[in-house]
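Figure 2 data, in text form.
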Amino acid sequence: MRYKRARPLTEVELEFMHALWAAGKEVTTKDIASELRGRGRDLSGGSVRKILSILMKKGFVSRRRLGKGFLYKAEVGKKLATSSLVLDLLGRAFEGQGALLVGALMDSGALSEEDVAEIDRLIQAHEKEES
């Protein structure tokens, strides 16, 4: 199934995707429920299946039958999914102005000195690629 540029991931959907990305392989609903429980989210099997169904409709997850159950895997990589979230936030909250987004991050105190150094390195590498 192909990624459809669907609505952005909700907080819970993103938690599911983190569990799938961490697994790096096909997993069962029980595997996902166990991983989520370890992250502080205890959901019933029905809730897990419902969220996986939503993620499948959005094109983020696929499944294949195995016996009486299914194996699930991420169809969208973390980089693409998180880029989509950032672009959604950029458009909705900052009217597409990247400098405002970065300014808000800097003003919030959420960035460590290491983060700022890494951002600087990424900007320099990007500028080098463009020239």
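Caption note: The first helix runs from residue 11 to 23.
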